Automatic annotation (TrEMBL):
Location of the Glycosyl transferase family domain: 215-372
Transmembrane segments: none
Species whose genome carries this gene: Methylobacterium hispanicum
Protein name: Glycosyl transferase family 1 domain-containing protein
GO molecular function, one term: glycosyltransferase activity
Length: 395
């Protein structure tokens, strides 16, 4: 049974280019299916894994850019493959098991060889399943004098993978019928024609910038000792360890309590105090304008109106950070609404949850801002992931 998916992206040349976008599509598609997800990315793309909030492997030396590899290793593609295998060996930092599925996409000849060398060295009781997407334009990176070497690498790689393909632990995929047929014939190792794995020029290449929009977190509650104390300690933590591009809005209806609170925390960058009773319209606007709601204690600590606004915010898809004793936590779990359920209510735990949601917002905002391009990428990733999972389940 597949319980965890590890996305291996060795070919990312541009941290915000289409390979990175496709990786994000795979990541989101896997999360939506309930899998634990990890990323291993090339050093050109460390920040992609950062944005996902998952583990990452730094300086993953798989030499995705073949021209760079040729320059560095004077045309010796086999040496490039050996370097790639050393890079792939770092995947074992993830404590691999047969319940893991590696998704390796846009892989070139020397990387395929290196991947095979590494995969064969993994003990059978630890060997994960793997789906490999072949880069259909691999030969364009090689001059005419290198084509024989490319074919030799393909043949060597396929001979390594043949037993694993036959046993069902590995799938080789190409988006090109002719390449699938050619490589199947090259070493008798089946290469299937899969859905589009690498985006084509049907969609214009564009550089995606990380969202710098400030994320607004709202705490609006009574002056109950529990809730206010947690938010007070959170403000002190944010003063010494701030979150980038994040604003915490604290609404306290009692003006005297709000004044005492503000005096106690002093000036904290990114924290805004709002005091006093608000009209229903202003109260609704306050909730709806937030990117996320902080609810570190049960709804009993909230006024009835705040409870209703929270429910409405959740129905609009605005995430909340809650504790298991909050009635709304059931709604979060059962309806798959975005948010975080805290197992411990400490300022540090709240800050971590805020940071994780900020990373989610970055991904979602880029999807919204680049809707057409992202939509195509996400469809591609969803289709590919569905096929791969169905294929492995049938074995």
């Amino acid at each position: 049974m597949i319980s965890r998916i590890i996305i291996v992206d060795a070919a990312v040349r541009d941290a915000y280019g289409h390979f990175a976008i496709y990786t994000e599509g795979l990541y989101l598609a896997a999360l939506e299916r309930g899998f634990a997800v990890r990323c291993a990315v090339s050093r050109a793309c460390d920040n992609v894994a950062d944005r996902f909030g998952g583990e990452k492997i730094l300086n993953f030396p798989a030499w995705g850019n073949a021209s760079l590899a040729r320059f560095t290793y004077a045309g010796n593609w086999v040496n490039c493959g050996v370097v790639a295998s050393e890079g792939y060996a770092r995947l074992q930092d993830f404590d691999l098991t047969p319940n893991d599925l590696l998704l390796v996409h846009s892989i070139q000849p020397h990387e395929l060889f290196g991947l095979g060398v590494w995969y064969k060295s993994v003990p059978q009781n630890l060997r994960p399943r793997m789906s490999i997407g072949l880069h259909t334009d691999a030969e364009m990176y090689a001059g005419d004098e290198d084509r024989d070497l490319v074919n030799i690498l393909y043949a060597k790689s396929l001979s390594i993978f043949k037993e694993f393909v036959e046993s069902g632990s590995v799938e080789l995929n190409s988006t090109n019928d002719r390449l699938s047929e050619y490589m199947t014939g090259l070493a008798g190792c089946r290469v299937r024609t899969a859905p589009l794995i690498v985006p084509t020029d049907d969609f214009p290449h564009r550089t995606i910038k990380t969202s710098c929009t400030t994320k607004r977190f709202l705490y609006s509650g009574s002056s109950s000792e529990k809730g206010i104390n947690t938010i007070y300690e959170l403000c002190l933590l944010l003063r010494s360890n701030p979150l980038h591009n994040t604003q915490l809005i604290v609404h306290i209806s009692q003006k005297n309590v709000a004044q005492q609170f503000e005096q106690a925390i002093g000036k904290v960058s990114g924290v805004e105090i709002i005091s006093g009773s608000l009209s229903r319209k202003d109260y609704a606007n306050l909730f709806v304008s937030a990117d996320a709601i902080l609810l570190p204690y049960a709804l009993a600590a909230y006024a009835r109106r705040a409870s209703g606004m929270l429910s409405e915010a959740l129905s609009l898809g605005i995430p909340a950070i809650v504790t298991p004793d909050t009635p709304m936590s059931d709604e979060l779990i059962n309806n798959g609404l975005p948010g975080r359920i805290l197992t411990s209510v400490t300022p540090h735990a709240v800050r971590v949850a805020m940071n994780e949601l900020s990373l989610d917002f970055d991904i979602r905002s880029r999807i919204a801002n680049n809707n057409k391009y992202y939509f195509a990428e996400k469809l591609t990733a969803n289709r590919y992931l569905s096929e791969v999972i169905s294929s492995f389940k049938s074995k």
